[in-house]
Structures are given as C-alpha cells and as structure tokens.
Specification:
By secondary structure, this protein is α+β, with helices and mostly antiparallel strands. Helices cover 16% and strands 37% of the residues.
Amino acid sequence: MNDSLQTTLRIDPAHPALAGHFPGNPIVPGVVVLERVAAALRAWRGGRVEKLDAKFVQPLLPGEDAMIELRAEAACVRFAVRRVDGVPLARGTLHAAQG
C-alpha cells in the first residue's frame, strides 16, 4: 500500500459555507478544509477519522489552488495543506477509526 498521497484542493467561491466568512474579505472556513482532508483520507485508505489535530498557519482563499498531502506513519496519518507555491496553510495528524 502507498504510504503517501497528494491531491488537489480548490473551494469554489460559490460554496455555501463561505457566506458570512467574511463579507468583503472571504476565507475558506477551517472546517471545510478539514472535511476535504478527511475525504482524501477516506478515498485513499477508507474508513472515517476518529481523531484529528490541526494547526492553521495561513488562510485558504476561495478559488485558490492548494494541495493536500497525506503521509502514513506508525499510528497516524500526517497531513499538510499547501498553496501551489508551497506556502503552508495547515498541518496536523489524523487517526482513523479501526474496523
């Protein structure tokens, strides 16, 4: 089994979660980014996320191109979200539910 995955991330400016986040200067809510990270894990390894630890370092803007990187380690999967120019947006660990 592959021990890493990279996939693209782009949130459409018309996404319903963007309304009110923040008028005149919209950013993608962290929960939307994390849902996409969890979806990438499900597509790659199956199952669901049981525990997630995340740190956001820069905002993702609507329509901005980014990459999700997943890397399996002993008891968890490390993730990073970066803009396509390499600027880090978020990082953390995921623990998948067993069974």
